[in-house]
Amino acid sequence: MSVLKNKKILLAVTGGIAAYKTTFLVRDFIKLGAEVKVIMTEKATDFVTPLTLSTLSKNPVHFELNDTDGNWTNHVELGIWADIMLVAPATANTIAKMANGMSDNFVMTSFLSAKCPVYIAPAMDLDMYKNKATQDNLKKLIENSIKIIPTESGELASGLVGEGRMAEPENIIEFIINDIKSTLTLSNKKILITAGPTYESIDPVRFIGNHSSGKMGFEIAKDAEKRGAFVTLISGPTNEILDKSAITLISVTSTEEMYNEVINYYSNSDIVIMSAAVADYKPKFYSEIKIKKEVGEMSIELEKTIDILSYLGQNKTHQFLVGFALETNNEEDNALLKLEKKNLDVIVLNSLNDKGAGFKSDTNKVKLISKNKEIKEYSLKNKAEVAKDILDFLEEKI
After folding, report:
1. CATH number, domain with residue 264
2. CB 24: neighbour CB atoms within 10 A?
C-alpha cells in the first residue's frame, strides 16, 4: 500500500510550459490511491485546460475566486481539506509571491490558507532559476518549511540547456513519498509478519487446520507499511488480499513451509510479529491417495510440528520478537508463561471467552504484555484499530 493511499492532494498549477506534465501527475497520484483536486492560475489555463484536469481528477477545477455565476469559491476550504499541497510547475513569479505572502490569485489564496505540508516543483529558464532573487525566495520558503523538489537539467523552453527544468512526474512523486516516509515512525524498519492458519495434509483431500482467517496479521502488515516499514508477510491459506500494496506477500500452506520462509527472512528483520495460528500437530503418516471411508472408527496418529516461535526466541540476536496467545482459560498466566519460555519481547493475548474476539471475526479484544510484565488492556475494536494499538505499543518498546 502506497503512503499516498487515501491522501487528499491539492495540486496547484501555475503558468509555465511544464504545466502539461500535470496531466501525468494527476493520473499517477490517483493510481497510487490518492484523491486529487486541482487549482490553477489563469495563466496556467493557456498551457493545459481545466477540462482535461477535471476529467482526470474527477473533481471540479478552480482558477477564479468567483465562478461564472459570480459565486465565491471557498479557497480556505480547499486549503484545509488537503493533506498535501503541491505547486507544480512553480514559476519564478509564483515563488516570489509565495515567499512574500501575496494573494492576488486563487492559487495564492489557497496556499496562504493551507494547513498541510506544501511542496513546490520549480520550473523556469536557467538564468531565471540562477538569479539571486529567485534563490533568495527559495531560501525564504525553505525557512518557512516549504519542501523544494529539486529541478532537473535538460533542454529548456528558451532552447538553453541547464538547470531549471521541472522534475519529471515520477520523480516528483518519489520525492514526496520518500519525504513522507522519512517522518514515519517505522521508517525503513524491516518487519516480518506471519498470518493465517497452517494446514497439515492427511491425504490429497483432507487436512488438519484451524479457523484463523488471517485478518489480524494482514491488518498489522498494512498499518506497519503505512508507518514506513518494509513489510514481509508470510501467510497461510486465507481469503484476505492486499490492494495495490508494496508489502511482500509469501503464501504457504504447511507449518514446515512457514518455518522455511520465516528462517529465510529472520536474520535481516528488525521486528518479527508471529500472529499466524500455526498447527501444533500434523499426521505422522501422509496418504498419497484419498483415504476411503470404512465401516467403524478411524484414528490418525499425530506428531508435533516445528515450534517456529521457540526456535526464533532461542536464536534471537537483535530482533524484537512478538508472539500471540489465544487462550480459553488461565489466560494471563498462560500468556506470561509463553512470554518467558519462548524469549519474547511482547505477547498479544486474546481470549475465546471474549465475545467478538479470536478467529474469523472482524473485531478483536487484546491484552498486550511486555517482557517486564507491563500489561495494557484494550476494549473490543475492529482489527484495523487493534493493529494500530499493537504497533503503537511496540513503538514505545523498541
Report:
1. 3.40.50.10300
2. 15
Q: Cα dist. 219→213, 269, 325, 358 in Å?
A: 11, 19, 17, 14
pLDDT at 73: 60
Q: Tell me the C-alpha distance between 25 and 123, whole Å.
A: 15
* Residues 305-357 pLDDT 10s: 999 999 999 999 999 999 999 888 888 999 999 999 999 999 999 877 777 66
Burial (Cβ within 10 Å: 0-12, 13-18, ≥19) of residue 126: middle
Whether residue 298 is found in the same domain as residue 171: no
Residue 151 lies in a domain: yes
Domain boundary residue, one of 182, 208, 223 = 182
Domain presence at residue 2: no
Domain boundary among 123, 157, 182: 182
The residues, any chain, with a CB within 8 Å of residue 174's CB and separated by 6 or more, are: none
Q: How many C-beta atoms surround the C-beta of residue 80 within 10 A? A: 14
| 210 among known catalytic residues | yes
**pLDDT digit string (tens) for 26-48?**
999 999 999 999 999 999 999 99
320-327, strands of its sheet edge to edge: 248-251, 230-235, 190-195, 271-274, 320-327, 346-351, 367-370, 375-377
Nearest to 58 by CA among 21, 13, 27, 19: 27
The amino acid present at 397, given as its one-letter code, is K
> 92-100 and 106-113 are packed helices; what angle lies between their axes, rounded to 10 degrees?
40
Which of 93, 171, 210, 343 is an active site residue? 210
User: Other C-beta atoms within 10 Å of 340: how many?
Assistant: 13
Which band of pLDDT confidence, cut at 50, 70 and 90, is reported for residue 251? Answer: very high
pTM of the model: 0.72
* Close Cβ partners of 54 (under 8 Å, ≥ 6 residues apart): 38, 60, 61
237 assigned to some structural domain? yes
Domain of residue 176, residue span: 8-182
